[in-house]
Specification:
This protein has 196 residues and is of the alpha/beta class. The chain is 38% helix and 15% strand. The longest helix has 14 residues, at 160-173.
Length: 196
């Protein structure tokens, strides 16, 4: 594969900012982003951000309409590093877990799984019921990774923006993409209590 490519799906769970951050970081890493945004995610974008759909599209290298199930990312012959669904709603999780390719986002995820490429779902929901958990198990058994965006407080990140960057950067680690500015844990660094 000449150009590194990653599919980014943004579905309708809260946390549209995570998807935006993924697109920004991929640009910095010189990874070609292939974006598909669900209809519910468009509603979430409207409620959670001041950014327009045009501005979101400008952050991606290639953008596909959600209904275009014949797009290149719906084919296994189109080589990618895999797919990050960020955030991943419980509806998208359920469709992926059950092989329901009813739109381009879920079809692309299905293709990534069948081609044995990396699929990372940054699931956003709480609390979880048994159906959610069973769907997470099903995706894991198929080779996908469930990666809720959980903040790492031990880094004492000073802003929500940096917490978002950290979560998305850790998810990109799973594709062997190294966000250089990402703080890394080092047990050799003394804490305040150790230095006293």
């Amino acid at each position: 594969m000449e150009k590194r490519r990653l599919i980014v799906g943004i579905s309708g769970a809260t946390g549209f900012q995570y998807g935006l951050k993924a697109l920004e970081l991929l640009k910095e890493l010189d990874v070609e982003s292939h974006l598909v945004v669900s209809k519910a995610a468009e509603l979430t974008r409207h409620y959670e951000t001041d950014i327009t759909s045009h501005d979101v599209a400008a952050k991606a290298d290639v953008v596909y309409p959600i209904g275009n199930v014949g797009a290149s990312i719906a084919s296994g012959s189109f080589k990618t590093l895999g797919m990050l669904v960020v955030p991943c709603s419980m509806r998208s999780l359920a469709a992926i877990a059950n092989g329901i390719s009813d739109n381009l986002l879920t079809r692309a995820a299905d293709v990534v799984l069948k081609e044995r490429r990396r699929l990372v779902l940054m699931t956003r929901e709480a609390p979880l019921h048994l159906g959610h958990l069973r769907n997470m198990v099903a995706v894991t058994e198929m080779g996908g990774v469930i990666f809720p965006p959980v903040p790492a407080f031990y880094h004492k990140l000073p802003s929500i923006e940096e917490m978002i960057t950290y979560s998305v950067g850790r998810a990109l680690d799973l594709f062997d993409l190294d966000v250089k500015a990402l703080p890394r844990w080092s047990p050799d660094q003394p804490t305040d209590s150790q230095s006293q």
